[in-house]
Design brief:
By secondary structure, this protein is mostly helical. It has one domain. The chain contains three helices and no strands.
Length: 71
């Protein structure tokens, strides 16, 4: 069990590092779109009790709003 916990921790760290480096070449508008989609997905999930439709809908709306916000 301890080996599985270490493997999961290492996998999570690798995903985190790769996710952070993926944003390095993005424009400000792209970053705003990604942040808006992420925030919209979380908010949509919370407001609909974890519904997949609410999560996807929130991500779509949040992405559009994030795309339109000027930094």
């Amino acid at each position: 069990m301890n080996t599985m916990k270490k493997l999961g921790t290492h996998a999570a760290m690798i995903v985190l590092v790769l996710g952070l480096t993926a944003c390095a070449g993005m424009s400000a508008q792209d970053k705003n779109t990604a942040v808006g989609a992420g925030a919209g997905a979380v908010l949509g999930s919370v407001l609909t009790g974890g519904s997949a439709v609410g999560t996807v809908g929130g991500a779509a709306v949040g992405g559009v709003i994030g795309n339109r916000v000027n930094p």
